[in-house]
Amino acid sequence: MTLLPDLPQNTALLDLLRRQGVPQESGAYVYEGWELHTHPDLVERLEDLAPQWPVLATFGMPVLAAKGIAAVVAWGMGVLLVRLPEAPAESLESAEPCPPLTDPGQGWYSLSPWQSELPSAESKRLLSLLIQHALSYAASLSEDDSTDWQGRPVQASGQPQGKAKVRRPGRDKGRRQGRHGRRR
Fold first, then answer.
1. Using CA atoms, how far apart are residues 166 and 57, in angstroms rounded to an integer?
2. What are the φ and ψ backbone dihedral angles of 26, each rounded to 5 degrees?
3. Distance set, CA 7 to CA 4, 156, 173 (Å)
4. d(CA 142, CA 115)
């Protein structure tokens, strides 16, 4: 199941996620019917950085979207992919690229979700602002001009609201797998 609409603006991302997606109904790392391809701590970080936005489970990856257009993806153990009209500030720590999305001219940028060079509160503030910018930019790519009561872009019609559920391993299981669980 994917909650991100199959729109032309999402084609490159959906193609990439679809290729790596593994349907999974049970197990320690199930994310809305798919094998989770993002560390559970990073899923929580994304939710913390954009608490007012629903996280869409898309082929085992958490995605934030505005008006159905993908804006942010939490990837693997330490990558936030953000869709922006220009590169983020150089003061932000980049992360491992995710070709072809992060290839020049594609509009996706790879950042560290933790920004270890900055104090925690400043990291959260800057990343939250950047995510809001990415969501606004994604909304501008849509032909739908509807907004919610707060003036924010709404999800595409028919898109459920709320957070996706992730089955997390118990404490002992996570320890057996190492500090950060299984690698993706």
1. 9
2. -145, 165
3. 8, 10, 39
4. 30
Structure confidence by residue, pLDDT tens digits, 114-161: 999 999 999 999 999 999 999 999 999 988 766 554 455 555 433 444
Residue 17 CA: distances (Å) to CA of 59, 135, 176: 6, 19, 28
Which tens digit of pLDDT belongs to each residue from 71-105?
A: 999 999 999 999 999 999 888 999 999 999 999 99
Question: ω before 160 within 30° of 0 (cis)?
Answer: no
What one-character-per-residue DSSP string does 89-118 give?
Answer: PTTSPB----TTTTSTTS-EEEE-SS-TTS
Q: Is the Cβ–Cβ distance between 75 and 46 less than 8 Å? A: no
Selection from 138, 162, 159 nearest residue 3 by Cα: 159
Q: Is 128 exposed, middle or buried (0-12, 13-18, 19+ CB in 10 A)?
A: middle
What's the Rg (C-alpha) of the chain? 16
Q: What Cα–Cα distance (Å) separates residue 152 from each residue in 103, 123, 130?
A: 29, 23, 15
First-to-last alpha carbon distance for the chain, in angstroms, is 20
